[in-house]
Amino acid sequence: MSIQARRERERAERERLIIEAARELAESEGWEAVTTRRLAERVEYSQPVLYSHFKGKDAIMAAVAVEGCADLAAELRAGRLKADGPEEALAAIADAYSSFAERRPALYDAIFSQRVDLPFATPEAPAPLQAAFGELLEAVRPFAGDDDLGLLTETLWSGLHGLVTLMRDGRLPPEGHCGRVAILLDRFAH
Amino acid sequence: MSIQARRERERAERERLIIEAARELAESEGWEAVTTRRLAERVEYSQPVLYSHFKGKDAIMAAVAVEGCADLAAELRAGRLKADGPEEALAAIADAYSSFAERRPALYDAIFSQRVDLPFATPEAPAPLQAAFGELLEAVRPFAGDDDLGLLTETLWSGLHGLVTLMRDGRLPPEGHCGRVAILLDRFAH
DNA sequence: ACAGAAACGCTAGCGGTGCTAGAGTCGAGA
DNA sequence: TCTCGACTCTAGCACCGCTAGCGTTTCTGT
Q1: Does domain B1-53 have CATH number 3.40.910.10?
Q2: Which SUPFAM superfamilies does the record match to this protein (chains A, B) (predicted)?
Q3: Which residues of chain B lie closer than 8 angstroms to A111, CB-CB?
């Protein structure tokens, strides 16, 4: 039994290795540089080994996304708890969100932009995703009023997502970013 | 002189053919199905011909995006002019925008999601892009108040963009879409 | 009218991609 | 010690974007 246990442990370690290598490669050179060949070389195994852990490249990206989302959730939470007062908390969340998107674009892409089949707005959604959304939810709650809290949070989230993605792809000038975030927050936290 | 004119005319026609084939292929099967080989086969020329018209696949997508944006601008304008009153005009614009994104996802992607080097928020931006943004601008103008009109429009645009992209990628449940748009508009047109 | 030149589209191929079939190795249990 | 099963590797498939270089066709100057 201990032999099998050791094998499973080693397998789990290797899976972690793959995910970390994929994340590092993506963060340093972008997702287009993450190929199964380079990834295999990086973890010092052959390509087919990757496919014994993950169904395909998409599944690897999804795994990286889930882990990255835990980081995002932690940063959102830290920002929210550090602030005092609902307005400050909402501003802190928004700052943390766009800061994460700017500092870790590859991670942000995997979570929110790349086409990767992750269950999102369902109970089966991975915990980190729900945690990150939960942080937004708590920050928005004081301003819900008569609106549905879930829909309101989704709408604010969409606003932030649109701002950071359009800016990062060069469709919005970076110099106006703070002003746009301020407008968005002002409209949501009246 | 007329010979050269005919040649240039034929060349221009072929370029149109390429752009239309790319658009049709993308709209019917998605951009991942648009390969240079399939495109070449579709226009009944060899692959290298594509490269005598466009620098690469990205440039073809950019051309499709610019044309598609003209359609978008027209639909936004139609929606805006049909409505009476600023509130209705803004709502019409938002409806037209998300309707376009839903009906023509491939076109929307080429314009707003795919990484393609189009100059956006500059004077060199292609006219259709400026026209589409201009429609948003006019719809937002009555609600600018003390805010900078440009920034405010960019922010509303980001909100709409976030809503439609997150929904289309399965990150937001479709059934809440109307509610979210209503919330967004309510917050911008007080 | 004809030779030379230039423009043009083609075939063939490069280096890469995600992914997999099948061979080979190696360790565990009888 | 031998057998068998689990596991990893090599090699290769079909495809990708892109391009070098050849051959034909058309225009130009004499």
Answers
A1: no
A2: Homeodomain-like, Tetracyclin repressor-like, C-terminal domain
A3: none
